[in-house]
């Protein structure tokens, strides 16, 4: 059973998912891959402690705070590769960005490989089931393009601005 809760945020309605103890999902309305890791049976349960904690975390975040990811019990569901990418995302500091290529280099180094595919990293980033908290919005193209955000480029920009990121070297690609 997966439990759901709704949170109204400055980037729109968010749907939170839990297994009863851990946060397993957080999606923006209309997000690509919305609910992709949900079990078939779901039930609305606004009263779960994890939803209260996640709501407080999100309140602090959207008020300009920098809450710690480790303050929440997260349990995203994905392959070993995706989980590794999501762990790296959790280490990107507020107000900064990194590239898919830099994450690929870091993973390659951890695995003792010379290279790793930035495109594969992009796929893992795009399938992050706990948006905002696992900060996939802090990843940009190597050329500074604001690309690849399942919640939409406008929301990616909004989140980066909220965090105080320097957007001067970044741009929206013509193809969206």
TrEMBL record:
Top EC group: transferase
Segment forming the signal sequence: none
Reported function: Involved in the cellular defense against the biological effects of O6-methylguanine (O6-MeG) and O4-methylthymine (O4-MeT) in DNA. Repairs the methylated nucleobase in DNA by stoichiometrically transferring the methyl group to a cysteine residue in the enzyme. This is a suicide reaction: the enzyme is irreversibly inactivated.
Domain spans labelled Methylated-DNA-[protein]-cysteine S-methyltransferase DNA binding: 81-165
Protein name in UniProt: Methylated-DNA--protein-cysteine methyltransferase
Any one GO CC term of the record: cytoplasm
Reactions mediated catalytically: a 6-O-methyl-2'-deoxyguanosine in DNA + L-cysteinyl-[protein] = S-methyl-L-cysteinyl-[protein] + a 2'-deoxyguanosine in DNA; a 4-O-methyl-thymidine in DNA + L-cysteinyl-[protein] = a thymidine in DNA + S-methyl-L-cysteinyl-[protein]
Taxon lineage: Bacteria, Bacillati, Bacillota, Clostridia, Eubacteriales
Places the protein is found: Cytoplasm
InterPro entries for this protein: MethylDNA_cys_MeTrfase_AS (IPR001497), MethylDNA_cys_MeTrfase_DNA-bd (IPR014048), MethylDNA_cys_MeTrfase_DNAb (IPR036217), MethylG_MeTrfase_N (IPR008332), MGMT (IPR023546), MGMT_N_sf (IPR036631), WH-like_DNA-bd_sf (IPR036388)
Pfam families linked to this entry: DNA_binding_1, Methyltransf_1N
Protein family: Belongs to the MGMT family.
Annotated Methylguanine DNA methyltransferase ribonuclease-like domain residues: 3-75
PROSITE patterns, per database record: MGMT
Keywords annotated in UniProt: Cytoplasm, DNA damage, DNA repair, Methyltransferase, Transferase
Additional information: This enzyme catalyzes only one turnover and therefore is not strictly catalytic. According to one definition, an enzyme is a biocatalyst that acts repeatedly and over many reaction cycles.
A single GO molecular function term of this UniProt record: methylated-DNA-[protein]-cysteine S-methyltransferase activity
One GO BP annotation of this record: DNA alkylation repair
Entry's EC annotation: 2.1.1.63
Active site residues per record: 136
């Amino acid at each position: 059973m997966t439990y759901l809760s709704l949170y109204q945020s400055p980037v729109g309605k968010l749907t939170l998912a839990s297994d009863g103890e851990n946060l397993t999902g957080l999606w923006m309305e209309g997000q690509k891959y919305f609910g992709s890791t949900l079990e078939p049976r779901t039930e609305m349960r606004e009263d779960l402690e994890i939803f209260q904690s996640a709501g407080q975390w999100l309140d602090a975040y959207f008020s300009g705070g920098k809450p710690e990811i480790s303050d929440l019990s997260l349990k995203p569901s994905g392959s070993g590769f995706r989980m590794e990418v999501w762990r790296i995302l959790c280490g990107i500091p507020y107000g900064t960005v990194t590239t898919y290529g830099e994450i690929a280099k870091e993973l390659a180094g951890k695995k003792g490989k010379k290279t790793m595919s930035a495109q594969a990293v992009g796929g893992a980033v795009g399938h992050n089931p706990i948006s905002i908290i696992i900060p996939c919005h802090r990843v940009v193209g190597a050329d500074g393009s604001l690309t690849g955000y399942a919640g939409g480029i406008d929301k990616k920009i909004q989140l980066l601005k909220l965090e105080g990121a320097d957007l001067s070297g970044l741009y929206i690609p013509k193809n969206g």
